[in-house]
Structure to design on (180 residues):
């Protein structure tokens, strides 16, 4: 299973959106070099307020570009970096990956999937009504989070738009993703 990096984004300041870059550098055990969410311990403000000593399982945020097409059909315009992701992908069912999946990004970098992004109300501040598009219910009434996945950096390296993403599933039994 493989896909493509379509965009890379980062921000050195707390902001909802992240600017697109020509490249980002992933640092093992930390996250995206220069990004406000990089670090060994939690950096998201809501998590820091709860317990600043917890490990940072949200070092790198990935979103599938196909989501932009899906919400576009409902009248929303979303581009890479708009929802705060670091890496925008195409061709991989990110939400269907199990915990522990390793994504090889380009020639060097490897991230390990830790869980789902838990979308917050800031999404509606960005575009009113968008939160309902990225959080919903399936036919059985189960909560479905579509705003991407979170990961930690296992091996550092440069990531560029156009890089190939190779998926390496963990040993079975697979654990489905849950919010982190």
């Amino acid at each position: 299973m493989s896909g493509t990096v379509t965009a890379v984004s980062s921000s050195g300041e707390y902001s909802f959106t992240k600017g697109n870059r020509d490249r980002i550098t992933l640092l093992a055990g930390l996250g995206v070099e220069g990004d406000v969410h990089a670090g060994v311990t939690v950096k998201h403000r809501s998590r820091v307020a709860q317990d600043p000593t917890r490990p940072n399982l949200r070092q790198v945020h990935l979103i599938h570009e196909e989501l932009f097409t899906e919400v576009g059909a409902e009248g929303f315009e979303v581009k890479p970096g708009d929802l705060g992701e670091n890496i925008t992908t195409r061709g991989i069912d990110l939400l269907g990956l199990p915990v522990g999946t390793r994504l090889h990004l380009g020639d060097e970098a490897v991230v390990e999937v830790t869980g789902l992004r838990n979308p917050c109300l800031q999404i509606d501040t960005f575009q009113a009504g968008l939160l309902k598009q990225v959080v919903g219910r399936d036919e059985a009434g189960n909560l479905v989070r579509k705003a991407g996945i979170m990961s930690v950096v296992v091996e550092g390296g440069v990531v560029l738009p156009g890089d190939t993403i190779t998926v390496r599933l963990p040993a079975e039994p697979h654990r489905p993703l849950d919010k982190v």
User: Anything to note?
Assistant: Helices lie at 45-50, 66-72, 122-126, 130-134. The mean pLDDT is 95. Residues 2-168 form a domain with the M1 Pyruvate Kinase; Domain 3 fold (CATH 2.40.33.20).
